Amino acid sequence: MSSKERNVDLAKWSGPKRPYDLIKELVIALVVVTLLIGTLAAVFSSPDERAVTLQQWSQAAPSDFVATATGELAGTTISAAYGPPYNDAAEGLTLGPLKLQKWAGITIPVNPPVDFVITPLKSSVDPEVATASSTWTTASADQQKTWAETYAAAIEKTGDSSKVTADASYGPVPVLATGLLRLAQEGSLDGLLTTQVTPLPGDFTMPMLFLADGGWFDELGAAQHLHGDQWGMMNETGSYPGQSWLWLFSFMYQIEPFKSSENADSQIFAVLMLLTLGFILIPKLPFINRLPRLIPFHRLIWRRYYKENNL
What we know:
- Keywords: Membrane, Transmembrane, Transmembrane helix.
- By secondary structure, the protein is mainly α.
- The chain folds into two domains: about 170 residues, no CATH class; about 55 residues, no CATH class.
- It is built from 17 helices and no strands.
- The protein is elongated and about 95 Å long.
- The N and C termini lie close together (about 10 Å).
């Protein structure tokens, strides 16, 4: 900035003046904006969807529920193989050589076969379920896995758990899965999983993980346009426009190499942090910080000011 420009900026204003009531303007703006927001919210508000429960799932898609419970016992669900912060079944997200989730450690321990199936079934009063639970817990890990995988394969083959014929090769798994189904259908399982970590019903980690392992919940998300390939991060339920400021996150999930990467979350986060850091450091970056002087677009906007002051 030249000394002439600096002197003009510091000079006392000697032009015309008029009274301005800032409080009045603020009150008027507040009232107008409040009425506008209230009206638009009443007319165009997003749908208020009720929370999905395990009871709804078990009643709407019992076969999917049983198949998911069997998958938890077999250790083949997303939760069972997720890794930190729930278990050590995988390394989790990485960023190049940085093993982000593994280094963060297991902070929310989750053992799907025990937490989602065996522990809740302790509340069952059915003696057959108690016997099946005892048989399961006393068996070896290999035997447990064989039983669960065999039953899961039978369900997949028939497409409906109710059509699977009883077979000794399934061990106690059918009794355990159907016992859990009854708990869910009567509404008990939601409460049992919600209060498993704390006596207060405020931690929904367990029911949410179990629900997300099933196919029914994924179908609900697709119907509400909430999948990643549907730009779901930006949507409210029902494809209503929602968090528009997340457009850049959503956009990057639609392109390669992020679209097919197992570490897309960490990679996109890193890219956006670099972009943010670059934006913050613009005044310090060589050449970039001189673009306003090399491309004096501001003089076009303030042309009258520069003309009147011969700048």
